[in-house]
Design a protein that fits this description.
eight-stranded mixed beta sheet, 2 domains, 19 strands, 50% strand, six-stranded mixed beta sheet
Length: 235
């Protein structure tokens, strides 16, 4: 179980690959909504991890966090009884694209309740963001294009573009110079790349490392492991 150590705090999380997530007052399973084939409704289970009721508001959004009518999330507001649970249904209200994935978010927000009279701390609501993917019926995959360039300050800019029709979530990767595999630059910051999007990571080699002309990138994603040989451009 992926568990966020937050108590009455604020969290807006794009959740990584796991079967269950817990945060402060409630947990959610599964933590990714996927529509594939003819299925038009998906189900989530939200559980209260505390011995007091929790009020939760549910919103379906575009990936950009703008409102959308493409999804219907019900019930929009519900009360989780102490140590109880609620079934949530997400319905797709539009047709899928033939060759390109559609991407949304499901936002669960705790509705703050009145604090006890003797409460003296700061009370902040909890927010969790779950990814929602609508797969193309004809099938689609991510197509990753890597590039790299030295920056004037000595850091290495590693760039990734997704030219495919489906998302990829890069979980982590290692970068090793082609002529010096003993040097390893590691990145552990997970990033989603939707179709047509790109990302950049700025990596700092160890001091006195000579500039290299090519690297080997090896890592893991929600689509499986990957390896790429990338030329490095000079500044």
């Amino acid at each position: 179980m992926l568990r966020f150590r937050i108590r009455r705090g604020l969290a807006l999380c794009a959740l990584a690959a796991a079967s269950t997530a817990a945060a402060g007052s409630f947990s959610i399973s599964p933590i990714r909504v996927e529509f594939a084939g003819a299925g038009r409704v998906q189900v989530l289970t939200v559980r209260n991890e505390e011995a007091r009721p929790v009020v939760v508001q549910l919103r379906a959004l575009a990936w950009s966090l703008e409102d959308t009518r493409d999804l219907l999330a019900t019930p929009p507001v519900f009360t989780l009884p102490a140590n109880g649970q609620q079934i949530v249904r997400i319905a797709l209200r539009r047709e899928s694209e033939p060759t390109r994935e559609l991407d949304y978010r499901l936002l669960l927000e705790e509705v703050p309740q009145a604090a006890p009279q003797d409460f003296t701390g700061l009370q902040v609501a909890l927010r969790l963001s779950l990814p929602v993917f609508v797969h193309a019926p004809k099938g689609s995959r991510a197509a990753l294009v890597w590039s790299a360039a030295w920056q004037p300050d000595g850091r290495l800019a590693l760039r990734l573009r997704n030219d495919g029709g489906a998302h990829v979530q890069v979980l982590d990767f290692d970068v090793r110079p082609a002529d010096d595999p003993a040097v390893t630059l590691h990145n552990s910051v997970a990033r989603y790349l939707l179709p047509g999007s790109q990302a950049e990571w700025l990596l700092e080699p160890p001091q006195h490392t000579a500039r290299f002309a090519a690297v080997r990138v090896s890592g893991a994603s929600d689509q499986g492991d990957f390896n790429a040989d990338v030329s490095v451009a000079s500044p």
